[in-house]
Amino acid sequence: MRQSEIRTQLKQMSDAELLTKLGEERKTLYAMRQQIALKQLDNPHAITAARKNIARILCEMSARKNS
């Protein structure tokens, strides 16, 4: 998915949905870190994408809090 599509989806989500999405992304990142430690992860770039998605969610939550 493109960055602009992800950002528009995040802006349309409610605060509760953002918290749920954040939890899901963090669980996914944790699972990927375990897989890479066991040399089972096929796409190591997925970790970078997950970290960026977490940062995007936190940025949107922070922007809502400050406005």
In the CATH scheme, the class would be Mainly Alpha
Regions with little confidence, pLDDT below 50 for 5+ residues: none
How far from one another are the termini?
27 Å
Give Rg in angstroms. 13 Å
Helix-strand makeup class = mainly alpha
Fraction of helical residues:
over 70%
Strand content: under 5%
Give helix and strand order, one letter per element, not per position: HHH
Shape type = elongated
Work out the helix count: 3
For the sheet with most strands, the description reads: none
Keywords for this entry:
Helix Hairpins, 67 residues, single chain, 0% strand, mainly alpha
What would you say this structure looks like, in words?
It is built from 3 helices and no strands. With 67 residues, the protein is mainly alpha-helical. The chain has a single domain, classed as Orthogonal Bundle (Helix Hairpins). Helix 1 packs across helix 3 and helix 2 runs antiparallel to helix 3. The longest helix has 23 residues. The mean pLDDT is 93.
Short recap of the structure:
The chain has 3 helices and no strands. It is mainly alpha-helical and 67 residues long. α2 packs antiparallel against α3.
Describe the secondary-structure layout.
Blueprint: H1 3-12, H2 15-37, H3 45-66
